[in-house]
Each structure stands twice: as structure tokens, then as C-alpha cells.
Amino acid sequence: MFGKSEDRDDYQQIARPVGGMARDLPDRFFIDYHEHIRGQLIYASTGAIVVTTAKGNWVVPSLRAVWVPPRVRHCMQAVGAIEMRTLYFDGDHAPLRSPDCCVVSVSPLLRELIDAVTRMPVDYALNSRDAAVVDLLFHEIRPLSVEPLHLPMPSDERIARICRWILSNPAEETSVAAWSKVAGASERTIIRLFPEQTGMTFTRWRQQARLLVAVQMLSAQHSVTDIASSLGYDSTSAFSAMFRKALGCTPTEFFKP
């Protein structure tokens, strides 16, 4: 049945404003860089997805989804085994008008609507129950709040080198002064470039990197104690305080509906 296709290309030229695709992926499954003519809403009911574009990384745990606008080149990787559900929207019916990727919360109702659209045929009848589900889907997406789960990546190779190291070694406490000796830029230049290139100070960017690593580790069922230790925090309470300040809830509450 065409509506059950797992080929993203089968959803780009359909006649309806939205089409849904279901695809289950194993842990660490990687989808290389590509783009679509349609905007894309990506959701996984288990595990997490890391979406990467030229502008940075977006972490999409369960109960969240990421919006990828049309023609934005991106790649994706599964964190844990995931049940991925993807909706493709034509340009005249984009549920979000952001020119950049963004992460939104998924309410229980939106979760069921996404699942319903992935089950219906791509040529669902107009003025039908399926069409009514699609109409409700648009109403449920638009008012949802954007979650701060984006990590902007710099284009300047001097600080990009620093960022890549931090992502690979999130507990590292190397100072800006120490980085200036290996990055090919003065301490003052590094301090200036981080806000210019990422919109964040060096310290803020490092904290955001740790936050996104933490979300990925939570998705992979690591304990809060192990995550706090892996990220260099002296205690689980210090890590939990950072997490709550950034996302409005504790790590143990993050995946609760």
C-alpha cells in the first residue's frame, strides 16, 4: 500500500497538504545528509533522534518533535531503538513558519494525531474523517511552545574545533586561556567569536552542549547519577538544578507526559 511506504521520496509530490510515514530504526541508525521539498515534522515515541544541519544540532527525545523547514539540508541519527513517525507538509500548509529547525513539545493528543496520519492513505478523501483528523492536527501543532534543545554550531573553524572537542568530551573544563594556545586564536578572539557565531558565550555554549548530551543519555536509559558524573558535575543535585533551570523540570520528570 502506497500510504505505508518507508521511502521519503514517495511523500514529496502527493496531492494532500500532509502525508505521514512510519519507520522503526535500530540504535545508532544514521541517515545521511539530504533535503526535502516539503517541510518535515519528525517524532519518535521512544529513544531520541539527533538532527544536524549547518546551523547546529537538535535533540528530539520522546514527547518532543522537531520541525525541519523545506530545503534544509540535514542528517539524523537514532539514540536507542526508535519508532520514528514523520509528517511531510507542503509549502502552503506549513504548521510552523520558522525558517530554522526548532523543537516543540508533543501533547498526548498530538501524539495520537501524528500516529493517525501515518496510518491513513496519502490520498485520503476530502471531507472525510481522515481530513478532519488532519485539520485537528494543524490546530494542535501551532500553539505549542518551543523547547530550548538546540545547539548552534559555529562556521569559524577555530572555535568549531573547540566545539567538536567539547561534544566529544562534555566533562572537560579546559579554560578559554588554555584553548587559545591550541585553537589558533587569542583568548579575546575566542570570547568575541562565540557570541558572534553561536549567540552564546563560551560558558553558556558548553552548558548547552552538556544539556543536549544529558538528554541523549536519558533517552538511552542511563541513570541520573551516571549522567551527572559523565558530564563533570560534583553531585546529582547540581546536575538536576542545571537541568531544571534550562528545561523547567528535573531529569526524572522530563519524559513524563
Automatic annotation (TrEMBL):
Pfam families: AraC_binding, HTH_18. PROSITE patterns: HTH_ARAC_FAMILY_1, HTH_ARAC_FAMILY_2. Gene3D superfamilies: Homeodomain-like (1.10.10.60), Jelly Rolls (2.60.120.10). Residues 160-257 form the HTH araC/xylS-type domain. One of its GO terms (molecular function) is DNA-binding transcription factor activity. Keywords: Activator, DNA-binding, Repressor, Transcription, Transcription regulation. CDD domains: cupin_NimR-like_N. This is HTH-type transcriptional regulator NimR.
